[in-house]
Amino acid sequence: MRYLYVTVALAFFWVVLSGHFAPLLLGFGALSVSLVLIVVRRMDRADRQPGELVPQLGLVGYIAWLLKLVIESNIDLARRIWNPALPIEPVWTRLDTHVVSPQAKTLYANSITLTPGTLTTQVHEDHFMIHALSAEGIEELRHGEMERRIARLDL
Predict the structure, then answer these.
(1) Which sequence spans correspond to the domains of the chain?
(2) pLDDT for the residue 111
(3) Rounded to two decimals, what is the model's pTM?
């Protein structure tokens, strides 16, 4: 019954916002409402599963640190692009990891990808495959500061 209310509300909202009543556009609206309803049903199923990510105060500090790292990496990347003397030597390598939980692995892999100049290409049980625009980016990851900060979050 709840999904019927959601469907009616979404359809009404779509019609009010679009203001068009052509059959083709109403069909697009019905398709849009159907896709949103499928996503909502899947989200409801995921909400009932155990192991939800509980917001933590430490996560706020980590995000602030990551934001600072992203800004520094942006500056470094801009320098490498504009200054031909600075090397851009792409590296693709294995990075061993000791984080265990799926949430911590996800946060670690996404943090690497969010940092300009580095990209997590594969996630395995005990390692990631990383692409970086310079060896310095890989060395910074091997130093382990990001992994230590994620491990302290205890996800």
Answers:
(1) 2-47, 57-153
(2) 97
(3) 0.66
